[in-house]
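haha ok so turns out i had the wrong file open the whole time. this is the CORRECT one, sorry everyone. sequence first:
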Amino acid sequence: MLKILKYQFFAIFLLLFVVSGVISTNEPIFSTKTLPDEQEKLELFQPLIKKSIEKGVDYEFLRQVILDSSTQFNEKYVQINVSLSKDTTEKTEPSPSSQIYDKLVTEEAVSKITDFIQNNLSVLTQAEQRFNVNKDVLASLLWVETRLGDYLGYHHILSVFASLSLVDQPEFIEYNLKRVRDKYHPSKKEYVQLKQLLVERSKAKAKWAANEFIALIKLKDKLPYKITEIYGSYAGAFGLSQFLPSSFSKWAIDADGDGKFNLFSVKDAIFSTANYLSQHGFNNNNIEFQRKAIFAYNHSTKYVNTILLLANKVLENSHLDSTNTGNTK
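then structure:
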């Protein structure tokens, strides 16, 4: 599988491959490269090391992070997909459910969000008063992002960015070109177009990943845990609020005043999320400003619709509970 396989243990890989009985030429094999030699690992990540040093990262700390056993290259993070544009005009009006993440808008979701608000009412009220972001929206956003902290992700964040930062290297360009050929079987003309798109996207992705890797490195003194211990989403976001490192460096808040910024802490996560939305124009009295701020958080209309719908349902549920409580007195 291209030049990247030179980083694997061929004998061990082949043995496991045969024993498992999953011989296939149609699907790529995802594998983590555990390099036995420190120099070999440093050479693999040399493009990232060079970019990091140019941005002022201390080499000795960088070397320590790269050589940490948890930091590994993984092929799945360098898979880039491109396609030629086609007419995607909808022939019929979309159904209302297609405009939200309907699996996230359930009675159970409303109940859990309501319980979360009740259990963290003081913190949410403080955030609402300080940032003018209502508590129902904050709790609903955290539900959509991580189910209020129940689903934080299992991807090693440094490995995500370190791996993706290499996607513009020749061997990975070839790797993804092969995937494109196998998927689309393009004509010569289409192949030239797809290759250009792939190269451009790979360069943009590699630059973005390197910048996020560097941003995370520079957070080392602000966090209550080692940066090599952070796990999160496939895209590299982490914490209850799922911030990328670059967002963390701009909008994270130490709400509990312990001297550290911890997005795995409910209070820090709530205040940081409120700060982000506030800085992007959220206003409790203007629905369009609310939509724009939430869209900035995640560029998806479905995402925006889902959060605002959940927030409205939670608010209605709280009003109903208040009415029922009043009637029983």
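The first strand starts at residue 32 and ends at 33.
again sry for the mixup
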